[in-house]
Write a structure and sequence with these properties.
binds adenosine monophosphate; binds magnesium ion
């Protein structure tokens, strides 16, 4: 009875994961566009549609090595034709092809006037002066017609498309050596804590190595955004203010630690004094405290996320809240990971009233998922073992072995 009263009271001051995310996304807008060399555009979002500067292909050509002929001459086999020349890719045919004639042709070579069909070399005796067609061939066979891929002026890649290797190829085909894309976000990373030391140091009693700076910067890099690391801010308002002053050169700031209500948690008051901040208690395990707001700078305001310090909470709240924000800034519209349903192989206890993202190992073939083991928010190894997050709804006290659960496939991306 006492438990349910206290959890009902807590639940009132908590906001849901979905609420937090929609408040965040409402305040994030895509960055401006810039022109960059095509070779650097992989993973960026195209800012303006690209149209074909010419028909693609630009001329009718052969899809096979063989003989260019008139279709009417090869409707039945065998057929005997005289060979009137040869044409290779990159050259122009020296004459036309008349009835009863064939011209040797290589893949990609322009189709000679008069011809409308290519008989592949395997369907002939490969003759030099005269050729015997051994298989009847339908008219139009093995011919790539001018403009069949795109017409000049057609949009070949729409604005908003994510540039993958295939898009790079299409853009190269239409001669775009520079493209207009949404700029990549620069993300400032600040660790906070008097106990933190650089990773090359031997921690003295009471000290730990700064893991979050590295995990969070690489999470930024995995989104093809650019992290810049501002090191460790000590647990004083002055040190934090100094670090955040430099951080404001970024498009977005991510801090870890110092957002709880301990005596040395300065993120909220300091950001409040340098802009504005909302401090949220999210109905989430792990990662309940999260600060989100704006840092005032000379260039305007920059969104800031104060993530919890526990290494699992920091990475998990990055995944849930910062990742979609960075993707939105970079112009993406698919902001969320793919999901799946799976049969749970072991029981997972959870706090009633909090949505829990348990670290899991998903087996796609078997359609199952199991827990990585102990789920404490300091057990970063659980994150390293996991290939998914098991999304357990707030109202449940536990999820039982055999139940069907929702999993977030953190090893996969929608399209970037
Ligand atoms: P805090 O949110 O500052 O109260 O930190 C919560 C826990 O996370 C404490 O045990 C911290 O020592 C730990 N922690 C905070 N920052 C980091 C970091 N950058 N790397 C590893 N652990 C951290
Ligand atoms: Mg701390």
């Amino acid at each position: 009875m006492a438990t349910s009263t206290s959890s009902a009271r807590t639940a009132k001051s908590l906001i849901t994961v979905d609420d937090a995310l929609s408040r965040i996304l409402a305040r994030i807008a895509p960055l401006e566009s810039i022109e960059i060399p095509l070779a650097d555009a992989l993973g960026s979002v195209l800012a303006a549609p690209v149209v074909a500067d010419r028909d693609v292909p630009g001329f009718s050509n052969s899809a096979m090595d063989g003989y260019a002929v008139r279709g009417a001459d090869v409707q039945s086999a065998p057929a005997r034709l005289s060979v009137v020349g040869s044409v290779a890719a990159g050259t122009m045919p020296e004459r036309t092809v008349g009835s009863g004639e064939a011209m040797r042709i290589m893949t990609g070579a322009p189709l000679p006037q008069g011809a409308d069909t290519v008989v592949r070399v395997e369907d002939t005796d490969n003759g030099e002066r005269a050729v015997t067609i051994t298989h009847a061939t339908p008219t139009g066979m093995a011919v790539r017609r001018a403009g069949e891929d795109h017409r000049r002026g057609d949009t070949v890649i729409a604005a908003g498309s994510v540039i993958r290797p295939a898009e790079i190829g299409v853009l190269a085909t239409v001669g775009r050596d520079r493209v207009s894309v949404i700029r990549r976000p620069n993300v400032a990373i600040v660790s906070t804590g008097d106990e933190l030391v650089e990773i090359g140091e031997q921690p003295r009693p009471g000290q730990i190595r700064d893991a979050n700076r590295y995990s969070l910067s690489s999470a930024v890099r995995a989104l093809r955004a650019s992290p810049f690391e501002l090191g460790i801010a000590r647990d004083t308002p002055e040190d934090l203010r100094h670090a955040l002053g430099n951080a404001a050169f970024g498009d977005l700031v991510v801090t870890s630690g110092g957002v709880s209500v301990g005596d040395h948690d300065h993120v909220k008051p300091v950001v409040d004094s340098m802009g504005s901040i909302d401090f949220w208690s999210i109905a989430l395990r792990p990662g309940r405290p999260l600060a989100f707001g704006d840092l005032r700078t000379k260039r305007g305001t920059v969104p800031i996320f104060g993530l919890p310090g526990n290494p699992v909470s920091a990475l998990l709240t990055f995944e849930l809240f910062v990742r979609p924000a960075i993707l939105k800034m970079a112009g993406h519209t698919k902001l969320h990971r793919p999901r799946a349903q799976a049969r749970l192989l072991d029981r997972i206890e959870k706090p009633t009233g909090l949505r829990m993202f348990a670290r899991g190992i998903y087996d796609r073939e078997a359609g199952t998922v199991r827990s990585t083991g102990p789920q404490g928010s300091a057990i970063l190894g659980s994150m390293a073992l996991a290939n998914c997050l098991i999304d357990l709804p707030a109202p449940l006290p536990a999820a039982d072995r055999g139940e069907t659960v929702d999993v977030v496939l953190t090893d996969l991306t929608e399209d970037h």
